[in-house]
């Protein structure tokens, strides 16, 4: 115990402070006793509280562990349930969609399931049933698209034939003969497809003939052989195509076709006689002196001056056949004399020798033009100049190229800027 005034140590039974003489009453003893706890009490309280806190922490920790374990168990059970139950639910739902004729949705669900159970087989079943419903509803094109991918599944091949057959009957009523032929060519042995196919070919050939497409008509009539009047129609198409080819200058094919119609059409023989002459003229002929060429191709004759050079010039003319001669103009006639071609005009007679049956027409060399380079001018019809006059300034090289017959080309720094002819 201490003096409340000076703080000196006192005995418990002291009435006064031995140092300052202050009276120490019972109240101070009681107050001090109550206010200042003993160290032993404090330690006991602290120890007790610490142990209590540790106990609480341990209890909370254990409770949290239990919660985590319970939650984890629930998650594992949920995930496992989803893993095993999801495909079952999806599969059953797909079958429900199939039975409800929601084929596209059913197929989509089954495709997501991959190899689960018999999903691949159920997909085929879906597609097959969908195609069957489309066929029943006369939606033949859509049914064909599905059936063509099902191969041998159940009777898919037969259903595909039926789809093509029914669509072909619709198309022939709509005069879509080319489509009918395409559909029935592969199933000509199915029901009466062969008869429908022939009728479609006959009608399409007739349309081709009336529209001047004789070659297309010929190809179809040849397939039809004795069907209706196909042989007669074939002869007519051959004759008309031959005449068209003759007029266009396709002499070789015209001769082949006229030879097939000569017994029916009397003037086929006249055409054949003319073609016998015309075909002898066709090809490339070379003039014996100048080496200039004359090329006959169809109803045109091409004059080739300076062939195989940068001065090549090509001119073309039409001609007519008069007896055994070709008339290019009133004063230019071409005829054959043995293996020689003779050309007579008002100036002189030229003789040509046939050097090839080839009818290739070369291109004329270009004429000089503004913007050409010096090299391009040399390769043009004017070729190399007889003389070059050059003037050089600080920034430009001026050139004057001189040609015969008062022709001039002017170049600045190697580019043509003017032409005087």
Describe this structure in words.
It is a single chain. The protein has 5 domains: 24-100; 118-198; 212-279, Serine Threonine Protein Phosphatase 5, Tetratricopeptide repeat (Alpha Horseshoe), CATH 1.25.40; 282-356, Lipocalin, CATH 2.40.128; 374-420, no CATH class. 50% of the residues lie in helices and 18% in strands. It contains 13 helices and 13 strands. The strands form 2 sheets. Strands 4-3-2-1-9-8-7-6-5 form a 9-stranded antiparallel β-sheet, with helices on one face. The longest helix has 61 residues, at 39-99. The N and C termini lie far apart (144 Å).
Provide keyphrases for this structure:
13 strands; 421 residues; Serine Threonine Protein Phosphatase 5, Tetratricopeptide repeat; alpha+beta; 4-stranded antiparallel sheet; 5 domains; elongated; 9-stranded antiparallel sheet
Summarize the structure.
With 421 residues, the chain is α+β, with helices and mostly antiparallel strands.
């Amino acid at each position: 115990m201490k003096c409340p005034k000076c703080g000196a140590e006192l005995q418990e039974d002291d009435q006064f402070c031995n140092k300052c003489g202050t009276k120490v009453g019972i109240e101070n003893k009681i107050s001090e006793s109550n206010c200042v706890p003993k160290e032993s009490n404090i330690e006991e309280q602290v120890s007790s509280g610490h142990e209590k806190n540790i106990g609480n922490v341990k209890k909370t920790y254990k409770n949290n562990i239990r919660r985590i374990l319970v939650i984890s168990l629930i998650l594992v059970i949920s995930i496992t349930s989803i893993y095993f139950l999801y495909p079952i639910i999806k599969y059953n739902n797909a079958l429900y969609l199939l039975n409800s004729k929601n084929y596209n949705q059913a197929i989509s669900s089954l495709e997501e399931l991959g190899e689960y159970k018999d999903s691949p087989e159920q997909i085929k079943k879906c597609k097959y049933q969908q195609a069957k419903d489309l066929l029943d509803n006369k939606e033949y094109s859509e049914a064909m698209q599905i059936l063509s991918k099902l191969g041998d599944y159940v009777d898919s091949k037969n259903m595909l034939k039926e789809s093509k057959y029914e669509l072909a009957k619709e198309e022939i009523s709509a005069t879509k003969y080319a489509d009918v032929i395409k559909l029935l060519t592969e199933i000509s042995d199915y029901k009466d497809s062969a008869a429908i196919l022939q009728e479609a070919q006959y009608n399409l050939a007739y349309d081709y003939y009336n529209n001047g497409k004789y070659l297309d008509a010929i190809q179809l009539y040849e397939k039809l052989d004795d069907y209706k009047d196909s042989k007669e129609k074939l002869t007519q198409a051959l004759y008309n195509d031959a005449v068209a080819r003759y007029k266009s200058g396709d002499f070789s094919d015209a001769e082949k076709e006229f030879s097939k119609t000569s017994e029916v059409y009397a003037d086929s023989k006249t055409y054949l006689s003319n073609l016998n002459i015309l075909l002898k003229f066709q090809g490339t002929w070379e003039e014996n002196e100048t080496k200039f060429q004359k090329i006959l191709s169809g109803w045109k004759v091409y004059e080739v001056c300076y062939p195989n050079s940068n001065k090549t010039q090509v001119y073309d003319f039409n001609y007519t056949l008069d007896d055994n001669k070709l008339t290019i103009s009133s004063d230019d006639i071409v005829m054959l004399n043995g293996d020689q071609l003779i050309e007579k005009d008002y100036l002189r007679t030229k003789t040509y020798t046939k050097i090839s049956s080839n009818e290739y027409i070369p291109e004329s060399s270009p004429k000089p033009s503004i913007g050409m380079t010096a090299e391009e001018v040399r390769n043009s019809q004017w070729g190399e100049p007889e003389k070059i006059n050059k003037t050089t300034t600080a920034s430009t090289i001026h050139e004057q190229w001189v040609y015969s017959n008062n022709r001039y080309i002017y170049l600045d720094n190697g580019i043509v800027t003017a032409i005087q002819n």
